[in-house]
Specification:
With 211 residues, the protein is of the alpha+beta class. Helices cover 31% and strands 16% of the residues. It is globular. The protein starts with 5 loop residues before the first helix and ends in a 20-residue tail after the last strand.
Length: 211
């Protein structure tokens, strides 16, 4: 079965948000300026997958002023933030290797300009589009890097699969709104334990990881 397009998946996501989390929906920004794609590609020194354009032509992340999150309970960052993070990445030689990676992910570095962030939990994890997969991986695969624990796990083989899975998880009740945030008048998505990749060490999905 073919994966839905990013545009079609976001129609489902936006519908769910309109019914359950309108503040998060309002926080999603308009499409990214076209010139930013070339800037990011130049900074990363690599071509971007076509689905990266599809994603950021749909929404340019969440407004930096909004206290909201999205995929896996992580903030969906703007292309400008992604550019700035890639610019700040040091040379490969200065990046430590990872203690654990899923198949298809290179383990000889943690950060690299080939790992383009699209999500940042402002603590220990980044969700990245991987432009330099290992053997058996996929160009443009979506990975989560927990740089505190020094691991990388694969979330999806492509951005379209990543966004489609998120839409399905919303619709099937795998996300709820955090009660403490609601009490403060904010909306914050909380993934179920099964899909909580940021807290992978407490999830049965990633119990196989040993470090």
């Amino acid at each position: 079965m073919n994966t839905a397009s990013i545009h079609d998946s976001f129609l489902r996501i936006n519908l769910w948000l309109s019914e359950h989390a309108p503040k998060i929906l309002k926080s999603l920004q308009n499409p990214a300026p076209e010139e930013q794609f070339k800037i990011l590609s130049d900074v990363a020194a690599r071509a971007l997958p076509s689905e990266f354009y599809d994603l950021y032509r749909t929404h340019n992340g969440i407004s930096p002023e909004a206290m909201c999150n999205l995929f896996f309970g992580v903030k969906f960052i703007s292309i400008e933030d992604s550019i700035n993070q890639v610019k700040d990445i040091d040379d490969l030689e200065n990046s430590p290797s990872l203690k654990y990676v899923d198949p298809g992910i290179r383990n000889n570095y943690t950060f690299n300009k080939s790992r383009v962030p699209i999500g940042d939990d402002s603590g220990t994890c980044l969700i990245c589009v991987d432009l330099e997969p290992d053997e058996g991986g996929f160009f443009g695969q979506v990975i989560l890097i927990d740089y505190d624990y020094s691991i990388a796990i694969k979330l999806a083989n492509s951005l379209s699969q990543f966004v489609s899975n998120f839409a399905a998880d919303l619709e099937s009740g795998k996300y709820s709104l955090q009660e403490d945030a609601l009490a403060d008048g904010k909306e914050w998505l909380e993934p179920s334990r099964e899909i909580d990749s940021v807290n992978w060490f407490n999830s049965p999905t990633w119990r196989h990881i040993k470090i």
